[in-house]
Input
Amino acid sequence: TQLLEQSPQFLSIQEGENLTVYCNSSSVFSSLQWYRQEPGEGPVLLVTVVTGGEVKKLKRLTFQFGDARKDSSLHITAAQTGDTGLYLCAGVSPGAGGTSYGKLTFGQGTILTVHP
Amino acid sequence: EAQVTQNPRYLITVTGKKLTVTCSQNMNHEYMSWYRQDPGLGLRQIYYSMNVEVTDKGDVPEGYKVSRKEKRNFPLILESPSPNQTSLYFCASSWLAGGADTQYFGPGTRLTVL
Output
């Protein structure tokens, strides 16, 4: 079983501050996804990174995939109260035969609270 | 409206009483998957299905069964529920295998097993 360690588990900051969430693994993933989840709802996909070293930006959010495709980070610049929520990373297992393709491994999640 | 629906949304049951949580999608997606979410553990994949009649185990399949007789439905079956299966369950679907495409999640089913 592949493991994906996400940190920190909790993050409480003031509006305007920057923050970074990390996902690390000893395993290689074919791609890595970041989700955001609101209370009472299912996760919603923010981005998928596929290539080692890839950087994607979504407004104030910057996502990076490690060169070795084992780790990823989410950086939020000038956080806003609307960024509050649960952030999840998910690694996609490399396709090797039929048994692992389609498997996703999620990190434990980061609960972000942005105070006004 | 394109969506993934789950029923029931909330369920309280007792140990050993068989139950089924239904999942249905109206987007003609090939791939469907079930997850459970527990505090501090994130989401853990239970089973997934690449297509009709094709299912495979995720990371925590013990105590669960699934079937994929038709493309739109992917029910989760607990033959003999136990208290450690108390959790929040999510169904998801996508065009391509999970991770290769945007997964759309249902609203969740909160299950309590007494």
Remarks:
- Chain A has one domain: 4-109.
- The two ends of chain A are 40 Å apart (CA to CA).
- The interface with chain B takes residues 1, 6, 9, 30-31, 33, 40-45, 48, 88, 90-93, 95, 98-99, 101-109 of chain A (CB under 8 Å).
- Residues 5 and 24 of chain A are 5 Å apart (CA to CA).
